[in-house]
């Protein structure tokens, strides 16, 4: 049976919301289970996280743009919701549905996101703004709406799924990585703001994971920068992703890390997985910026020398 909750607009009235706050504050949701929200739940890390939380006894509200893609989760007992992080009214309706059904929010896993890859010169600013809207501002709006309930409870845990791309960089990843660098700083500030209220904030940083994210990212990158002056860089980047893809870890590696972040009494501020991601972050910390640039250019992307030569000609012209 699919756990479906109908979409509705939050009531724009001055009605007393005390019953909802009382339900949140007494520590017992209507189902008798703790309540978790997971965004980007239609595939990959989000789907695996919903299944892990359901297995752990949580009442789970799964949000995504593609509701039909979450039927499996509905059959497992999750509540399914349409959620578009670029639309404020969708976010507001989503939180209203969760509170109407469960009366509280114990865990919020912000997993939804995508990568708008391409050369800075060639990515339209409208695409860059959409990247920030989903990966940062939509996430922030959802947190803003969840926090009054969490504060009333005196407890809660927010898990922001970032990326190792929030600590390192790569050619053609400027807008995606800018969104993740921003999320890292946002999460640090938020963690300190919410500590007095018994609410914790944890960042999970995935490395290479087998999901729909990479193929979609590569396709968009090639559409944006697959021709013109950045073509060879884009082709090499696509080739690297193609070769590394089969060696990427399964989403379960991240859903397990999220489960730890949700359930451990005193979570770390950050969890990195898989091990290859830890190695990459260690390499970044051990090298200067220029040395890390050299590693990216020479080892990861193996940029053709003629590109560098052509760049030198442009500078000399």
From TrEMBL:
Database matches in Pfam families: adh_short
InterPro entries tied to this protein: NAD(P)-bd_dom_sf, SDR_fam
Keywords on record: Oxidoreductase
Highest taxon listed in the record's lineage: Eukaryota
Key word Oxidoreductase present: yes
GO function terms (MF aspect): oxidoreductase activity
Gene3D superfamilies (UniProt xref): NAD(P)-binding Rossmann-like Domain
A GO-annotated cellular component: cytosol
Family in the record: Belongs to the short-chain dehydrogenases/reductases (SDR) family.
Name recorded for this polypeptide: NAD(P)-binding Rossmann-fold superfamily protein
Taxonomic source organism: Klebsormidium nitens
